[in-house]
């Protein structure tokens, strides 16, 4: 498996995995399908500040993606992001989400972010297990949070601290993705 920064050509695959989540479950609160152009617009407008990562098989097939986004827009939230990870159907439980999140959190930490938040619709044992195993802690439940597919859905909020939040240290400005991202090197023989 390979984890890399998302490219323009990945937008169709990202739309496909999101559309599956949108149309078939409550892990994504969207109610209308998306397309590659909409994904591309979102990616292009945010990719300098927030990492978008793609996992591919050794043969190059798309396995899933993870991204960070703004939690809130007010300035005091600059060091807090929301994360999301989606894996193609049939590839759940194979470590893809963990690999994507591990690399995402490394980049976010290097950029200077301090806190990652994630909202998980519950029950969702796979996602709950992933977030808890990555070191997230439960910080609250919103019950109900939204209405989808004929019923009210609760959301559990998770928080991961990437760095200490010590009041004696003023956090540095957030660095761009490009300024901290290093493409993993292939092992030398």
Write the layout of secondary structure elements.
Layout: E1 2-5, H1 11-24, H2 36-46, E2 52-56, E3 62-70, E4 80-87, H3 96-111, E5 115-121, H4 125-133, E6 137-148, E7 151-161, H5 177-180
Parallel strand pairs: 4-5
Antiparallel strand pairs: 1-2, 2-3, 3-4, 5-7, 6-7
Helix pairs in contact: 1-2
Question: Which features characterize this protein?
Answer:
single chain, 189 residues, alpha+beta, Aminopeptidase, seven-stranded mixed β-sheet, 7 strands, 29% helix, 30% strand, globular
CATH class: Alpha Beta
CATH topology: Aminopeptidase
Rg over CA atoms, rounded to whole Å, is 17 Å
Number of domains: 1
User: For the report, how would you describe the main beta sheet?
Assistant: 7 strands, mixed
Q: Approximately what portion of the residues adopt beta-strand conformation? A: 25-35%
- Into which percent range does the helicity of residues fall? 25-40%
* Category from helices, strands and their pairing: alpha+beta
Order of helices and strands: EHHEEEHEHEEH
Count of DSSP H/I helices: 5
User: How many individual β-strands?
Assistant: 7
In whole angstroms, the N-to-C terminal distance is: 19 Å
Task: State the shape.
Answer: globular
- Across the major sheet, the strand order is 1-2-3-4-5-7-6
TL;DR of this structure?
The protein is α+β, with helices and mostly antiparallel strands and 189 residues long. The protein is built from 5 helices and 7 strands. It has a 7-stranded mixed sheet with strand order 1-2-3-4-5-7-6, with helices on both faces.
